[in-house]
């Protein structure tokens, strides 16, 4: 069995499209009928996230942690309890390609770190999109780590100790733990996802936060929001 785990905090605006895409990936014919569950972990939600996800066919767990590391870990634990051999992780503001799960499995690795695309750059200055295009490696052999596009075998996940209870960078911590145990990690551009570039991001050190920091360097000198951001790179 396979599992797609999606943490969500007040994601009513995005969760429907996210789950619909995940279900298409779970039903892909190249999985040859192997069962694949879509598990949404609704964390401290006060909107209709859970109800929408259930209506779209996801299994939903509700927790009150306001912690993405704990939410991902909760979903992974549920998947392992169901007997999942592969855990695929994405985010609630992200849509995965129809062959996303197939592409992860085709890597034949202990873990797969994928890349991301952005479906709407309008919240940001044009220069931010240009910076992304110049600095982001959308190719095999990249070294980006995104919770929105991550897969790991059940065996390697357990051996690495799973997700730490971190409010952000839990994905980086897991990959570092996988490296520490000598896991075979594929850095692939084959599994595709598209995510948002929203400014009301959930993770304090995630992709959205990084884009916001990058944008500050392009603001006019003297702007209240401008500061020194010369060391910022889009790497998470």
TrEMBL record:
Stated name of the protein: Glycosyltransferase
User: Could you confirm whether the keyword DNA-binding appears in this record?
Assistant: no
SUPFAM superfamilies in alphabetical order: Nucleotide-diphospho-sugar transferases
State a single Gene Ontology molecular function: glycosyltransferase activity
Domain Glycosyltransferase 2-like: from-to ranges: 4-131
Alphabetically sorted, this entry's keywords are: Cell membrane, Glycosyltransferase, Membrane, Transferase
Query: GO CC: one term?
Result: plasma membrane
As for subcellular location, the record says: Cell membrane
- Enumerate the InterPro entries for this protein: Glyco_trans_2-like, Nucleotide-diphossugar_trans
Keyword Transferase: yes or no?
A: yes
């Amino acid at each position: 069995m396979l599992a797609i785990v999606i943490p969500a905090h007040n994601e009513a605006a995005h969760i429907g499209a996210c789950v619909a895409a995940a279900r298409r990936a779970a039903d892909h014919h190249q999985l040859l009928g192997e069962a694949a569950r879509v598990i949404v972990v609704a964390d401290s939600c006060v909107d209709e996230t859970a109800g929408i996800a259930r209506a779209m066919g996801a299994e939903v767990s509700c927790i009150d942690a306001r912690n993405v590391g704990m939410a991902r870990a909760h979903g992974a634990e549920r998947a392992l309890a169901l007997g999942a051999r592969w855990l695929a992780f994405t985010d609630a503001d992200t849509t995965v390609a129809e062959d996303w799960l197939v592409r992860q499995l085709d890597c034949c690795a202990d873990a797969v770190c994928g890349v991301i695309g952005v479906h709407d750059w309008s919240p940001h200055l044009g220069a931010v999109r240009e910076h992304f295009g110049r600095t982001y490696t959308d190719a095999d052999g990249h070294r980006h780590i995104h919770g929105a596009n991550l897969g790991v075998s059940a065996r390697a996940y357990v051996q690495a100790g799973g997700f730490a209870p971190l409010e952000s960078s839990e994905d980086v911590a897991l990959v570092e733990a996988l490296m520490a145990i000598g896991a075979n990690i594929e850095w692939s551009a084959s599994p595709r996802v598209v995510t948002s570039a929203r400014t009301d991001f959930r993770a304090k050190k995630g992709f959205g936060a990084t884009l916001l920091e990058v944008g500050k360097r392009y603001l006019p000198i003297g702007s209240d929001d401008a500061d020194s951001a010369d060391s910022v790179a889009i790497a998470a």
